[in-house]
Write a structure and sequence with these properties.
48% helix, alpha/beta, 6-stranded mixed sheet, 28 helices
């Protein structure tokens, strides 16, 4: 069919989306790129649709395509009520492309202005897609030929005086369904005598209204497992996608008192505004729901989404939401945020522990000795589990079930640290400190995903409820390649060879040269040499010694570049001792080697090579 035909079906809610589809995620640049492809006559890919018969319609909720997207308050697809006595056509593959065409030809895209407030509506002005009729795109790395842009009303008003551009709203092409309407467009915009402009308008009209460039493959089988398998393979090339959207669909259809989709979205938004902000997904929240509702199998499989399980999930939703909120607040207390939390799944066992004990927000600030020690044990486990590679990767469902069982059995009065680590070791996810782990940790770099967790764990004097910055002990600016090349010896020649510079720069950003400092102190330190800075801030001998001990720093701090390598090696040795002490496992009895020697399920086996660096 033509693009216009598809958009008219969308307009009439005859082409819709099943809830297994994810929400719209394309960026403005991607929308522009697909319209550049349309103008060039490039294919925009094939599409997969599903003819849903009346007997299957009642099992799902359906949603319409977005027309006016806003990063502030219009991210979610509108619900479409479908009569259960007729069949519908649902798009399984192609939502992002069709939505982008719909936005460009019929709607708007409101994204946040650079450096504007994220929580203010005025930071997200409404923009329409325009085409410059007077010239092609300036030279660009994206390889775009046509000059397309999303522009606000104010930007259009400012562009009136620019004689080099004539911005034409793409939406006018969609409205011009007949050839004679298209022929009036050049006159309307004063480009009737511009051959190139007339050509572009005609070309775009042909591609939208005349050329049948969209090719649909229609699946009619009503077997949900088969349809899901097709969906997963088409969308991921065989990489297993989350089935959480199917759970959302069935939950929404079966919950009696509230809208499951709205409830989950609201909770995700609330969790992500905790502390400095997180990036939790719908998948994480729904997985947590299955775990906290004590559903036996926590996998996203159709057979687990029974009416009974969905009723249980709805009945417990308020308690589940409360536990997840407190868990997110605890993670924020541990100094974690979207930028430093490398595995969102750690939220789930923390929430289950909160749920198991019925903890309230006062637990976070309680000064009782038992609560302080319990929080310290929980914090230690969370951070160490984020440091060891692969803990939260493959075999996640099995691990979550094991952790749930341990907490349910042993977590009534306190966080069962030793039992949890033993269960993890049995699953081949030991937190034991090995030589390989030590070398891996020492190779972590400034700003890396796991670096914060390591620093916060090693330096437990750090109050992670305050804002701390990663800081270079010896200033980064003094180990810049250009700065090092400019240093001269007494004879006027370069002091450091290229090999020496490579070594200095290579070690500059690694863990032995990193520490955590309170934000104001870090800003004030700037590029001051550490031996000078510490005397200014800790002039007393006891304060001086306490700072060195707390941060595992050698007694002699470097003053200039010549001192750096000796300092680096000395700090490295102190960090090794600190790692062995602070990251030591709580397992008192070694796990049987036959049980821990290999992954215990096919997910773990298939995922062995998937760990990210």
């Amino acid at each position: 069919m033509t693009i216009a035909m598809a958009l008219k079906l969308i307009q009439k809610n005859e082409l819709i989306l099943p809830a297994i589809q994810r929400e719209y995620v394309w960026k403005p640049s991607q929308v522009i790129k697909i319209f550049d492809s349309v103008l060039r006559g490039y294919p925009v890919g094939s599409f997969l649709s599903w003819k849903v018969l009346p007997e299957t319609v009642s099992k799902f909720k359906f949603y319409g395509f977005l027309k006016d997207y806003s990063g502030f308050d219009k991210k979610h697809n509108p619900v479409v009520d479908i009569p259960t006595d007729r069949e519908v056509i649902a798009v399984l593959d192609g939502q992002q492309r069709l939505t982008s065409l719909n936005i460009g030809l019929r709607g708007t895209y409101a994204y946040r202005n650079p450096r504007a407030w994220a929580n203010k509506a005025w930071s997200y002005p409404e923009r329409k897609l325009y085409l410059n009729l007077l010239g092609e795109a300036p030279e660009n790395e994206a390889g775009l030929k046509y000059h397309l842009a999303f522009l606000t009303k104010e930007q259009m008003e400012q562009a009136v005086e620019d004689g080099t551009k004539k911005w034409f709203p793409i939406s006018d092409i969609f409205e011009a369904g007949e050839a004679y309407q298209m022929a009036q467009i050049p006159v309307k915009y004063g480009v009737g005598n511009e051959a190139k402009a007339v050509e572009m308008i005609s070309l775009l009209w042909q591609e939208v209204h005349h050329i049948q460039s969209l090719h649909f493959y229609e699946e009619s089988d009503q077997d949900i497992e088969r349809v899901l398998d097709i969906f997963v393979r088409v969308n991921s090339g065989g990489t297993v996608l989350s089935y959480s959207d199917l759970l959302m669909s069935i939950a929404t259809a079966q919950w009696k008192e509230e809208d499951a989709r709205a409830a989950v979205h609201d909770l995700v938004d609330a969790l992500n505004t905790t502390g400095q902000g997180f990036n939790f997904s719908q998948d994480t929240v729904l997985k947590a729901g299955l775990v906290l509702a004590d559903v036996g199998d926590v996998g996203f499989k159709v057979k687990n989404f029974t009416t009974t399980n969905m009723a249980t999930l709805e009945a417990k939703w308020d308690d589940i939401s409360t536990s997840l909120r407190i868990a997110a607040e605890l993670l924020a207390d541990f100094g974690l945020s979207g930028g430093t939390l490398t595995a969102d799944s750690v939220l789930i066992p923390v929430a289950y522990y909160v749920h198991r004990r019925g903890l309230t927000p006062t637990y976070r600030v309680s000064d009782k000795k038992s609560d302080r020690e319990d929080r310290a044990a929980l914090r230690s486990w969370v951070l160490r589990s984020l440091i060891v590679r692969g803990v939260w990767g493959s075999g996640l469902d099995t691990l979550l079930r094991d952790l749930r069982e341990v907490i349910r059995r042993d977590g009534a009065d306190g966080f069962p640290l030793a039992s949890i680590e033993y269960a993890m070791a049995l699953r081949g996810k030991s937190l034991e400190v090995t030589d390989a782990l030590i070398e891996d940790i020492l190779g972590l770099a400034y700003g890396g995903g796991r670096t914060w967790a390591v620093l916060a764990t090693l330096f437990d004097h750090v109050d992670t409820r305050m804002q701390y910055h990663e800081d270079h002990v010896f200033p980064k600016s003094k180990l810049d390649v250009r700065a090092l090349k400019s240093i001269k010896s007494g004879d006027g020649n370069r002091r450091y060879s290229d090999a020496a510079i490579d070594e200095l720069v290579g070690k500059r950003d690694l863990l032995p040269n990193l520490e955590l400092l309170p934000g104001p102190e870090n800003v004030g330190k700037s590029d001051t040499a550490p031996d000078v800075w510490i005397v200014d801030h800790y002039p007393g001998a006891d304060e001086y010694a306490a700072f060195l001990k707390a941060n595992a720093l050698p007694s002699v701090l470097p003053h200039d570049v010549d001192d750096f390598l000796a300092f680096y090696d000395a700090r490295r040795e102190r960090l090794i001792a600190r790692i062995k002490d602070k990251l030591k496992t709580q397992v008192t009895t070694a796990a049987p080697p036959t049980e821990a020697a290999a992954p215990t399920d096919i997910d773990a086996q298939l995922g062995e090579g998937d760990l990210e660096d």
